[in-house]
Design a protein that fits this description.
The structure is a single chain. The chain is α/β, with parallel strands linked by helices and about 270 residues long. It has one domain: Alpha/Beta hydrolase fold, catalytic domain (Rossmann fold). The chain is built from 11 helices and 8 strands. The chain has an 8-stranded mixed β-sheet, sandwiched between helices. The longest helix is centred in the N-terminal third of the chain and has 14 residues.
């Protein structure tokens, strides 16, 4: 399995798609890993050279015991790109990964061809902060399936849960394998994140998508991003909760591919 040691951490990565395709990097949500993009990769890898990777604390990458931050994840990503000889990339991220995209656009715009930011925020208001603190306290209990039981109602729409009765037991099995101390560090990284005052610094072409039934990171956060990032475009995906990349993959993929087609590399 391919790993590289960059910025003092071992990161797991995979490439898919044509070697001569434009580079596209997928940035994971907080508890995602490279396999979590299963509904996006077949469509994206037909046209693009897609790099998936696990951030520190996620999946098959190293889980160091020191504190994490989204700034540190951005430094890790730049170091990974350098080690792989990659210049610029389209950046697609959902939730935590979309927030990483914001930092890439603010601090590393020279590495970004475009940004696609899905179900993400630039800061947390009191309700979101309270929900995330509940997540942190639940993770500290040290029981993966229980952790999932205590947070899943924040992330899925009711219609999706009704139509997917097998979702909860299958997810409990996955969460039984989750490194909960690392999950706590990832949650605490998110709790420190606030870049709303810096959104105007993002000059990279940016697409923002929110989910209509997202109660964790509602559409108003996407509208804040849209208002704050000059020239950005905004999409609202109906009938979906926070995990929109799973609930509405066709709609998400259409938005991504349509936006990237407008900004194809022309040099």
């Amino acid at each position: 399995m391919p790993h590289l040691r960059v910025n003092n951490v071992n990161l797991y990565y995979e490439f898919q798609g044509p070697e001569d395709g434009e580079l596209l990097i997928l940035n994971n949500g907080v508890f995602m890993n490279t396999s979590s993009w299963a509904f996006q990769l077949p469509d994206l890898a037909r046209r693009y050279r897609v790099l998936t990777y696990d951030m520190r604390g996620q999946g098959q990458s190293e889980h160091p015991e020191s504190d994490y931050s989204l700034d540190l994840h951005a430094d890790d990503l730049v170091a990974l790109m350098d080690a792989l000889g990659l210049d610029k990339a389209h950046m697609v991220g959902t939730s935590y990964g979309g927030e990483l995209n914001l930092l890439m656009g603010i601090h590393h715009p020279e590495r970004c061809r475009t940004l696609v930011i899905i179900a993400s925020v630039s800061h947390s208001d009191p309700l979101n902060a309270a929900m995330i603190e509940r997540w942190r306290l639940a993770a500290k209990l040290g029981d993966g399936p229980l952790f999932f039981r205590l947070i899943y109602a924040d992330t899925y729409s009711e219609g999706f849960l009704v139509n997917r009765p097998g979702l909860i037991p299958a997810a409990e099995e996955r969460y039984a394998m989750l490194d909960l101390p690392a999950a706590v560090r990832l949650i605490e990284s998110y709790q420190r994140f606030n870049v709303t005052a810096q959104l105007g610094r993002i000059k990279v072409p940016t697409c923002i998508a929110s989910a209509e039934q997202d109660i964790l990171k509602p559409r108003r956060y996407g509208e804040i991003l849209h208002k704050g990032i000059p020239g950005s475009e905004f999409h609202l995906i109906t009938d979906s909760g926070h995990v929109v990349v799973i609930e509405k993959p066709a709609e998400v993929n259409t938005i991504i591919l349509g936006f990237l087609a407008k900004h194809a590399y022309k040099n």
